[in-house]
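Onboarding guide, step 5: your first structure request.
Type a short instruction followed by the sequence, for example:

Predict the 3D structure of this protein.
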Amino acid sequence: MARQQKRTAARAKSGPARARKAASAGTSVSLEDRAVDAALEIAADRGWRAVSLAGVAAGAGVSLAQLYAVLPSTGAILDAFARRIDRTTLSGVEIDAGNSGTVRDRLFDVIMRSFDALEPHRRAVAALVSDLPRLPLLALCQGARLLRSLSWMAAAAGVDTAGPLGALRVKALGAAYLVVLRTWLADESSDKAQTMAALDRALRNLEMVAQTASFRRRSAP
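The system replies with structure tokens like these:
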């Protein structure tokens, strides 16, 4: 409980600043950013199934040929959006595994940074989550994108993601992230207390599973 209160107090100070930084990450006038912003606007208003290359080009104020040269598919647009969120999430993260708390604390911080980065695009993300069950190919691609993003977040927290065991860690983190994402989408509070509590529970459960697995390996004859 004390840890949760400290985190809530810290986010009351740093959360708004992070959110402003996340929002400003999309203010570039590059064609890629304009196209991503146009797609997000369409998705927020009408859902991801309504996002088309022609609509994105019109919203970005460019021709289809210009859009094709930079982002030739809606999947590429989602990739660009994911890269934007990853850059914002990782910006300012210091990799100092020896002096910055436990692995769980570091994961907590970097994952909450990702939700801060997503906050200006909540309606578009909600539309994507809602539409994914009806878009199986997009869902498959988006799952791979999420694992790539989580690999970077885990690395920023000092988690070893190399080899089969590292891949398993990332997949387990992905399952936990999706659970917390649902909470975040419904969390309208300014301090995101519900999201923080859900993330803390999810990471604590992962930690317990990891400790149990490690104990069993040591105890095996």
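Each response can be followed by summary notes, for example: The CA atoms of residues 82 and 145 lie 7 Å apart.
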